[in-house]
Q: What sequence folds into this?
């Protein structure tokens, strides 16, 4: 989506280690008008999929998911981060490895909020190694629900997550697909 | 707001210790249509206040704040939880005491996202002891910005936070004001 790519070029910051920081409009301060345009685009892409729930993960996915859900007219469920293992029977849990923060944590979803028959669209701000998206897919399928696909704001295509998950047959619609980031050459998008 | 009170009566659960659980529509699963009605109501209440930013706190405030911000046409900033003290010069931080979880944590906002001249509306899902709201007020005022008020979904009026903060001169608009919760008598709202 041109609007998002242009905003990344204008306001994204490249930090040491070729990390992209977009916290002026996506995940600390949130430009809700821009996100609403993203939500409209995902609605255009997935409107015939009979979506019944939007699933995301705290914290940075929540705002994007809620604004997108308004376009679909369905509820949001967000997976909660937990440091303790919850082995109680009332939750689905799955492990996420954060390469950015160098640790592993569990995410939880109460069973009653994703059910058999649900058609789930997963929404998140970033896709890089794919660990969070894989956890949300695992939770959805453990519930007997169907993953209709994933809407991602920014995909780092040079990391393996997106292609790995696509190869398993899932549809991923990323609105900005970054092919490379470096302090020398800046941010490049896929064609 | 009748719509929110009715929903709390219908779907709120009272847990041991007279804790109110509203995670089927407010803070795990989110009914975005209901939240959009809350957002419209806060817009009606604060539309003449010249709001330039909506400030909230992760994670459960983010969805409500983003949907409300669409009504105002302004950005959201969410304070991030941090277990480490950030004493770098680029953040405002403030302490929050969580009585529910029995611990204290810092919340951080990058200085560049709340600035002198901003007119800040604080949005959050719950107000009980008021610790989170006081932290967000402190951050806003340290930035030299103005707190125009707070929009709260559910206030537990029988705890001291709301009245304490109102007594300091702040406007708080809570859409459901609970006067008592008990397993025996259920949930009672203020008139």
A:
């Amino acid at each position: 989506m041109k609007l998002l790519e242009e905003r990344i070029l204008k306001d994204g910051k490249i930090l040491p280690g070729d990390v992209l920081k977009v916290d002026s409009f996506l995940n600390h301060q949130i430009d809700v008008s821009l996100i609403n345009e993203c939500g409209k685009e995902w609605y255009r892409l997935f409107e015939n999929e009979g979506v019944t729930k939007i699933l995301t993960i705290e914290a940075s996915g929540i705002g994007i998911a809620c604004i997108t859900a308004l376009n679909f007219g369905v509820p949001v469920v967000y997976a909660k981060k937990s440091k303790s293992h919850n082995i109680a029977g009332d939750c689905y849990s799955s492990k996420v490895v954060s390469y950015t923060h160098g640790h592993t944590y569990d995410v939880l979803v109460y069973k009653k909020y994703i059910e058999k028959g649900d058609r789930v669209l997963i929404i998140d701000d970033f896709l890089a190694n794919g660990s969070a998206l894989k956890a949300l897919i695992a939770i959805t399928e453990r519930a007997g629900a169907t993953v209709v696909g994933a809407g991602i704001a920014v995909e780092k295509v040079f990391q393996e997550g997106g292609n790995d998950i696509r190869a398993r047959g899932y549809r991923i619609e990323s609105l900005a697909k970054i092919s490379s980031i470096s302090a020398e050459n800046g941010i490049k998008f896929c064609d």
